[in-house]
Amino acid sequence: MFNLVILRSYRKKRAEKRLREDRYILSLDGGGMRGVIPATILEYIAIFFDNHADKRPLCSHFDLIAGTSTGGLIALALSSAYETKQIVELYLEHGHIIFPKGSSFLQLNMLGQLFSQKYDDLSFNNLLKEIFEEAPLQALLSPTMVVTYDYTNNRPYLLSSYDTPKTLVRTAARATSAAPTYFAPTTVYDEELKHQISLIDGGVIANNPVLYAYREAKKLYPDAKRFHILSLSTGGVAPPKIEAGKGINGMIGWLDPAKGTPIYRIYANSQMQTADEIAFAIDDLEYIRVDGTLEHKVKLDETDPLILSKMIAWANEIYRENRVKIEAFCKPLVQRGVANRGSA
């Protein structure tokens, strides 16, 4: 009997040690208004923890939250203590503020977009100030990172609560979502270079930020034995297959909007495939990818209430299809929470 008690105690301590050695990361894709899809899936995850009597803020379950573009907005909102329901409502109630339709003649005029961004970002900046106020990244409740691109110096540029703590949250949100042709770049002061730099949407290099999330987690937790990343997509439409021998020729062919802008589609798909293939091949990483095919293409700036409701329906279906692996990812987080409370 005594030996059995010792064995149980040993197993418990070993399990708790493993929970401390493992690190759990949330990674969120870009995709404009399609961000309502991962936001909806996060609602289900919040309900899962609530059903297991785990009342901590959702962000506190993760050792790092990473995002690109709209995923960066969600990451920053989560770590600012916004509830998942509130984040979904941001898309439903404020999407028209981010992407105001018919705000100018140039917006409706294709020629105008050749010389100016599609949207005046004044309303977007005001919304971000209302959401995040003047809080710096160091005030976030969990380690958080968003991907941007410094086109001044042609390099990826990460804004985070640990490396750029003085940057305002709203500035980071604006920078990671500065999609070229939609919004103007964002200017920030680089502490290392000691001058201003211009940042654009991180989607140009990593619409799925999983590899940057993994690298940052390795830096933050060098003693970790294994990393677990839950990666949430914003969904997409399967690209049409191009019949062999019927190539696309010339600039017009590759940029033809009637054909779905083939060069952009190939670029975007290949970038995502590369991230997936490398992440799945990393030995000390468990990569859980939650993705789904939408019924039809949804524009980044889609704000039609009917389309938004359809996206939520698609998100519900994506969750149902991936529920088993999502809950399997979350169960150790509940156990880790219990272990931490027990040792407090």
Walkthrough of the structure:
This protein is α/β, with parallel strands linked by helices and 344 residues long. The protein is built from 13 helices and 8 strands. Strands 1, 2, 3, 4, 5, 6, 7 and 8 form an 8-stranded mixed β-sheet that branches. A hairpin with a 4-residue loop joins strand 3 and strand 4. Helix 3 packs antiparallel against helix 8. It is globular and about 60 Å long.
Mean pLDDT: 86
**From the alpha-carbon coordinates, what is the Rg to the nearest angstrom?**
21 Å
**What is the CA-CA span between the terminal residues?**
28 Å
How many separate helices? 13
User: N-to-C SSE series?
Assistant: HEHEHHHHHEEHEEHHEHHEH
> What portion of residues is helical?
40-55%
Largest sheet: 8 strands, mixed
Tell me the quaternary state: single chain
Q: List the uncertain runs.
A: 7-12, 103-116
Structural class: alpha/beta
Q: How large is the share of residues in beta strands? A: 5-15%
Outline, from the CA principal axes? globular
Q: Please count the beta strands (DSSP E, at least 2 residues each).
A: 8
How would you sum up this structure in a few lines?
The protein has helices at 2-21, 36-51, 70-79, 84-98, 105-108, 110-113, 122-132, 169-176, 203-206, 210-220, 250-255, 262-281, 305-343; strands at 22-28, 64-68, 144-150, 155-160, 186-190, 195-201, 226-232, 285-290.
Descriptors for this entry?
8-stranded mixed β-sheet, 344 residues, 13 helices, single chain, 8 strands, alpha/beta
Task: Set down the secondary structure blueprint.
Elements: H1 2-21, E1 22-28, H2 36-51, E2 64-68, H3 70-79, H4 84-98, H5 105-108, H6 110-113, H7 122-132, E3 144-150, E4 155-160, H8 169-176, E5 186-190, E6 195-201, H9 203-206, H10 210-220, E7 226-232, H11 250-255, H12 262-281, E8 285-290, H13 305-343
Parallel strand pairs: 1-2, 1-7, 2-3, 7-8
Antiparallel strand pairs: 3-4, 3-6, 5-6
Helix pairs in contact: 2-4, 2-13, 3-8, 7-8
